[in-house]
Amino acid sequence: MPTISRNEPHRHRQVAESFGVDAERYDRARPRYPEALVDRIVDGGAPAVLDVGCGTGIAARRFRAAGCEVLGVEPDARMAQEAGRLGITSEVATFEDWDPAGRRYDVVAAGQAWHWVDPVAGAAKAARVLRPGGRLAVFWNAPELPPAVTAAFAEAYRRVAPDSPMAVSAAPGKAEEGYRPLLDLAADGMRRADGLDAPQEWRFAWEWTYTRDAWLDQLPTQGSLTRLPAERRAEVLAAVGAAVDTLGGTFAARYATIAVTARATDGGGRAEARRDPGHADTPRRTHG
Q1: By CB neighbour count within 10 A (0-12 exposed, 13-18 middle, 19+ buried), where does 71 fall?
Q2: Which residue, 10, 12, 38, 193, has most beta carbons within 10 Å?
Q3: Helix (H, G, I), strand (E, B) or coil at 226
Q4: Cβ(43)–Cβ(134) under 8 Å?
């Protein structure tokens, strides 16, 4: 599946602020996050959480269900409005321009959004708004799809959007390979920011089964398709739908939810990132 260009992805603001074109679909169709991830970030407490790029509040509602007090920061007013409808208060701004007004947090989180934030400036700002010992945790859902589905998308997308800033590959591989540049950018930003210790990686493996209709409902919420004209988007969806049909109308997506995280310190850490082998598996479920 596509990922944003690895070269300064946060500069592609036109993509970053396009998801609100159908905020209701985004909230309905986008994958959730493993409960084990939220539990590990919360670490047995009920902290104050700042959710950066909160979108419609998918991650924010997970934190709220864990007993946290949550505020979102979201640059797209349409997404923020949908989050409000679903019970999440958010302030409309990019994280770089957002005014904390003296407020401090125990957790600064970003689900599927940190690549839209300048990784160095964002980490430095997170360190400033975190209480001592607080945690910055940024995470992504990386799907590994059947080769037929990936190949159909890649071929159709290259045909209808040859000049897109999204990088598309049909090559099979582990789920996180396409996200490695984003993970490395996040970790490097944390290492360069004063006030954070050495970043760690956490990985949580899980699986979700999609029907054809559920996958085609989710696909238009991807940044690769939100800005395409309707007829080009329909061409991509038709190709992918045909591929899913060859698999019997359903397929299992293997997800790896990967977090890059660092603690706030008084002096800031300067150590190399280390990978933490923590895993959490959730039962196989059917979506659609």
Answers
A1: middle
A2: 193
A3: helix
A4: no
Residue 195 vs residues 132, 217, 224, 246, 256: alpha-carbon distances, Å: 9, 41, 35, 52, 29
Of 246, 286, 25, 29, whose CA–CA distance to 152 is shortest? 246
How far, in Å, are 44, 61, 156 from residue 84 at the CA level?
27, 11, 36
Q: Count H helices, E strands: the chain?
A: 11, 11
Q: Alpha carbon of 116 to those of 14, 16, 157, 285: distances in Å?
A: 10, 6, 22, 30
Please name the amino acid found at residue 178: G
Residues 6+ apart with CB under 8 A from 229: none
Residue type, 235: E
- The partner residues of 206 in beta bridges, in order of sequence, read 255
DSSP alpha helix (H) spans, 66-146: 77-85, 119-129
Mean pLDDT of 206-214: 96
Q: How many CB atoms lie within 10 A of CB 245?
A: 11
130 within 8 A of 154, measured Cβ to Cβ: no
pLDDT at 33 over 90: yes
Beta strand pairing status for 130-144 and 250-263?
Answer: antiparallel
Output the pLDDT for position 285. Answer: 38
Asked if pLDDT for residue 52 goes beyond 90, the answer is: yes
For residue 259, which phi and psi values (nearest 5 degrees)?
A: -115, 140
Residues 233 and 225: beta-carbon distance below 8 Å: yes
Amino acid, res. 53: G
- Give the pLDDT of residue 143: 92
